[in-house]
Design brief:
The complex is a heterodimer of chains A (101) and B (573).
Chain A (H helix, E strand, L loop, with lengths): L4 H21 L3 H26 L3 H28 L16
Helix pairs in contact in A: 1-2, 2-3
Chain B lengths: L1 H18 L12 H19 L6 H29 L2 E3 L4 E3 L1 H27 L6 H18 L3 H19 L6 H32 L4 H10 L6 H18 L7 H8 L2 H26 L4 H24 L4 H22 L2 H29 L14 H4 L1 H15 L5 H15 L3 H25 L11 H16 L14 H24 L16 H19 L2 H12 L2
Antiparallel strand pairs in B: 1-2
Helix pairs in contact in B: 2-3, 2-5, 3-4, 4-5, 4-11, 4-14, 4-21, 4-22, 5-6, 5-11, 6-7, 6-11, 7-9, 7-10, 9-11, 10-11, 10-13, 11-13, 11-14, 12-13, 12-18, 13-14, 13-17, 13-18, 14-16, 14-17, 14-21, 14-22, 16-18, 16-19, 16-21, 17-18, 17-21, 18-19, 19-20
Classes of the chains: A mainly alpha (101), B mainly alpha (573).
């Protein structure tokens, strides 16, 4: 039994949209972080689906690169978040309001 | 230890042989500039970790300048090879070192030569010790270089991340200042958001064309006529959004003013120069050389992006009272000019964009360096008023800043003039008359806020100030366009006018205004007391500023070599 590729693509598009909307709507920095991961993994799912459909290894290799980069990004991002919110109670984006204009 | 490594190598080779994967050949000379930066960066980190006492920041700066110079020389040698023997392609066609890439390699190396000079004094003053600033700058530079020579969308993405992740950290380098951390977080969240959009764009493009390699995508599109492929157009759109975030094009510019304002000032200058160099390198290559057949789809979108970027950047900068914020909006305005060359999508347009990115990089680095000097310890003096009378207190710094600002405004005898001229000319040649007109209009608006700063700096210097002849001449020059600006004259094309009359008309007014402000603010009428702390300069920053100003003026008076370079870079495309 096989599921048609378009279902995977639709799921990926849906996940990507949830991630993008979540990032714009949610105020907790850690949740925003997870939303970015969701978007990246939606892209990964798209890559794998197309790689299967095209019978090409390139898309699957791209996923590895994206995974590694996402891991590196998380390391830096969490470091920044910890550095900022060490002196604060909660990790809310609205607390960071020094810069505006 | 060695035995087991050898065994692992043998097993690895057997596995590879069994699976039938061919390891791509790597031409190390083709990626030597990047390797120099990355290898040097590792050595710097090792030296910092192993040295018994903390090394002075100047030692790291010297090493970084040396590495960047080595990379610059290598790029120029590669340029000679490439002009003789054609582009080098390596690592399974994912890296393409052609003239276009080498132009950006040279640009990025120049930025890396100057940036440590301009940063060292600041880091010492703010007591940020350690090699982090230099190490992060080197990594970021190598990422921008990979973006410039990438011939594969996956490598473009990797380069983008190698460029961006160090920049997030650089923005938050000054962990004592809360604004710096906030800038880092904002940059990180929006940068990661744009990266995710970019990756999704790559995935869709891959699905529609069957490859991530730019050459193969180009060949596919040349063979097949795409009539109505939503996936490809969607992927292209997402790629454009991802790039637009990176180069800060309106409406994807929201992060720019906050991040530029909050980051340590030398880091701001560096990220303004480097992110734009890397971003535009990949943007131009992907869109102009890979997707020319879809030009009718992306050109109108770029038109809107460029028009908005030009106008919003210029108009919003006018109302800023914080110089750092003003310069960040002005950098948005500059991005609009570079987009002009992309929108034209001709060799001429791309050459104009290349010239613009090169000149802009050094000018913006120097400008932010002056802001870092005037900002003083703790970075709390960035409002416009702090620049009043700088021409008398620090004639050398003020003159350098005046030249850099005039270059940004597009004054003749600076590189800024030719940069603006070439992209506007290219837009007009490509029949984008409306966009060319918008660009001229935005240049006129932008001239106002650049010249306002120049004018403020020399406003109480007067005609007979002890600031030296050069500074006075600049003040007169500054007064001239400021005088005609309210009349709505096109700042893009100055009409040489007898300056004496306007200058005499404006000078007394400002002198009295300055005196008023002084007597109100400090209650002291004597003009010698400035009330501002002295600006602490160092030989390093003077040398760095000297390079920026020299390049701006020399290539402004004699632009031919650089123009030739840019044109040849696009010929070898």
């Amino acid at each position: 039994m096989s599921v048609h590729a378009s279902w995977y693509l639709t799921l990926a598009a849906l996940l990507f949209t949830i991630g993008a909307v979540g990032l714009l709507v949610r105020r907790n920095v850690l949740v925003m972080f997870m939303c970015i991961e969701l978007m990246l993994n939606a892209a990964n799912l798209t890559f794998v689906t197309f790689a299967r459909a095209l019978n090409d290894i390139g898309g699957q290799v791209a996923v590895f690169f994206v995974l590694v980069v996402a891991a590196a990004e998380v390391v830096v991002g969490l470091g920044i978040i910890v550095a900022i919110f060490r002196r604060k109670v909660g990790a809310t984006a609205d607390d960071a309001h020094l810069l505006k204009g | 230890m060695i035995g087991s490594a050898h065994l692992a190598g043998v097993v690895g080779a057997r596995l590879v042989a069994a699976s039938g994967i061919t390891i791509p050949h790597i031409d190390y000379t083709a990626i030597l500039p990047e390797l120099i930066l990355l290898g040097g960066m590792l050595l710097l980190l090792a030296a910092a970790a192993l040295s018994p006492r903390p090394l002075p920041t100047e030692a790291y700066a010297t090493a970084t300048v040396g590495l960047a110079t080595a990379s610059l020389v290598t790029s120029l040698v590669l340029w000679r090879d490439v002009t003789d023997r054609g582009p080098l392609t390596t690592v399974a066609h994912s890296i393409d070192v052609d003239g276009f890439a080498l132009f950006f390699l040279v640009t990025i190396s120049c930025i890396l030569v100057v940036a440590p000079m301009l940063g060292a004094g600041y880091l010492r003053r703010e007591r940020i010790s350690g090699p982090e600033y230099y190490v992060l700058a080197l990594i970021s530079g190598s990422g921008a270089m990979f973006m410039a020579s990438a011939n594969d969308l996956v490598l473009v993405f990797l380069g983008l991340e190698i460029l961006s992740i160090p920049l997030y950290v650089l923005a938050g380098l000054d962990h004592r200042r809360e604004a710096s951390g906030e800038a880092a977080m904002k940059y990180f969240v929006l940068g990661a958001f744009s990266s995710a959009i970019f990756v999704y764009g790559i995935a869709l493009t891959y699905g529609a064309t069957g490859s991530t390699n730019l050459a193969e995508i180009g060949a596919f599109l040349a063979r097949n006529v795409v009539t109505s492929d939503g996936v490809l157009i969607g992927g292209l759109g997402l790629l454009l959004v991802g790039f637009a975030f990176k180069v800060a094009a309106v409406p994807f510019h929201m992060w720019t003013p906050d991040v530029y304002q909050g980051a340590p000032t030398p880091a701001t200058g560096f990220m303004a120069a480097m992110a734009k160099a890397g971003g535009f390198a990949a943007l131009l290559r992907v869109f102009v050389s890979t997707f020319p057949s879809l030009r009718s789809s992306w050109q109108p979108v770029v038109f809107v992006l460029a028009a908005l970027t030009l106008l919003v950047g210029a108009v919003v900068a006018v109302v800023q009272s914080d110089v750092k914020r003003m310069l960040s909006y002005s950098s948005i305005n500059h991005a609009g000019f570079v987009l002009l060359g992309l929108q034209a999508a001709t060799a001429r347009g791309v050459a104009g964009s290349l010239y613009y990115v090169f000149t802009y990089g050094l000018v913006v680095l120097g400008s932010f360096a002056v802001v870092s000097l005037v900002g003083g310890s703790g970075e709390d003096r960035h409002d416009l008023a702090r620049f009043r009378g700088l021409g008398r207190r620090q004639p050398v710094i003020a003159t350098a800043f005046a030249v850099l600002l005039l270059a940004q405004a597009g004054a003749p005898f600076t590189t800024g003039f030719f940069a603006k001229l070439y992209v506007v000319e290219a837009a007009a040649a490509a029949h984008s008359y409306l966009l060319a007109a918008i660009a001229m209009g935005s240049a006129a608006i932008a001239a106002f806020f650049y010249l306002r700063v120049v004018f403020l700096m020399f406003s109480d210097a007067g005609a007979a100030a002890p600031a030296g002849e050069g500074a006075t001449a600049r003040a007169v020059e500054a007064a001239r366009p400021a005088g005609i600006e309210p009349a709505g004259a096109a700042g893009g094309s100055w009409v040489p006018e007898p300056s004496g009359a306007v200058a005499t008309m404006v000078a007394p007014v400002t002198r009295s205004a300055a005196a008023d402000a002084r007597s109100v603010s400090s209650g002291v009428v004597a003009l010698d007391v400035s009330g501002e702390p002295p600006v602490a300069t160092s030989p390093w920053i003077l040398a760095g500023l000297g390079i920026c100003v020299a390049v701006t003026v020399v290539f402004g008076v004699w632009p031919q070599p650089l123009v030739e370079f840019a044109h040849q870079a696009t010929l070898l495309f």
